[in-house]
Amino acid sequence: MIGLGDLKKLLGEGHLKNEYTYSSENGDFKFAIKTLTPLEEALAHRDAEMFFTQDNIKRDSDRSSYIAVEILSYAIESVNNVPLEKMTEAVGETDVEKRRFFIKSFGPGLLIELWKFYNTLQDKILIKNTKEEDEAVKK
User: For residue 55, what are the CA distances in angstroms to 51, 52, 67?
Assistant: First the structure.
């Protein structure tokens, strides 16, 4: 019989987590970034939708920026092994709110690099799943 402890082990399955190093004139910064669960992704999109309404965002390019910030707020766990929510004195109810506040202060170049890296992780999951499906069909 499967116990609750066994089921909890499933929670981390299917994620990818990797480190991205961003080099600048201020030094190297190592970002620990993970892919999101479907729930985290849904929450990120919900949060972005609230900002679209609140800030009256209409242009697709602006909407994409909001979505990227929200997803990265869930995906970036730490910088140089320091949890992102510990790097700000922003008032927020949740760690995600604190991370969002910090991420919004990043320059566009850094945001774009982090977003590209996050999408690379997502692509790796898709490629892995596609290969596994192909192998299952062959059997």
Answer: 6, 5, 14
